[in-house]
Amino acid sequence: MALHLTTIFIALLFLLVRSPLASSFTLTITDDTPSVYEVLQNYNFPVGILPKGVVKYDLDESTGRFHAYFDSSCSFSLEGSYQLKYKSTISGIISNNRLKDLSGISVKVLFLWLNIVEVIRDGDELEFSVGIASASFPIENFYECPQCGCGLNCVNAKVSKLRLKSYLSSI
């Protein structure tokens, strides 16, 4: 009887995995699930576009819709003039070389906080869009993950330098 139930269970599991419904299931972190930083790399993004400290994430692979969760909100400065804030939950849609419909990430430009709504990788550059304007940065600025509170240079508690591409474009 136990062998019969095991066979039925395996058959049902196989059918479930093979069914069209399986592609709509959401992935969450388990021991054998890749980290959110590995997922970014799978979509051709460097790990440093997210700060350290993501505690879990979910990703619908069929649509690219994702959520990433921190224990709390996160903020830090780069180059003294760029302040970034990540809410405790950020979301968007990821595809190869593109993050769109982003929410939960903002940048302070002059005296205004603007939501980053899209990131596009174009060769060795990342273009960050706030909707009405965008700025490009060399990808090597994002090889390392910043830390909440201190950015990229937490040992000396200094603000890190971020190289800006020489232009700012608007849409």
Chart the SSEs and their pairings.
Layout: H1 2-18, E1 27-28, H2 36-42, E2 54-59, E3 65-70, E4 74-78, E5 82-95, E6 98-109, E7 112-115, E8 118-122, E9 125-129, E10 133-138, E11 168-170
Antiparallel strand pairs: 1-2, 2-3, 3-5, 4-5, 5-6, 6-7, 6-8, 8-9, 9-10, 10-11
Question: Can you describe what's shown?
Answer:
The protein is mostly beta strands. It is built from two helices and eleven strands; from the N terminus they run H-E-H-E-E-E-E-E-E-E-E-E-E. Residues 1-29 and 157-171 have low confidence and may be disordered.
Intertermini distance: 67 Å
Silhouette: globular
* Approximate helicity band: 10-25%
Mean pLDDT: 79
Rg over alpha carbons: 19 Å
Strand content: 35-45%
Runs in which pLDDT lies below 50 for 5 or more consecutive residues are: 1-29, 157-171
Q: Structural class of the secondary elements?
A: mainly beta
As an assembly, this protein is single chain
Element order: H for helix, E for strand: HEHEEEEEEEEEE
Biggest beta sheet attributes = 11 strands, antiparallel
Number of helices: 2
How many strands in all?
A: 11
Provide the descriptors you would attach to this structure in a database record.
single chain, 171 residues, mainly beta, eleven-stranded antiparallel β-sheet, 2 helices, 14% helix, disordered N terminus
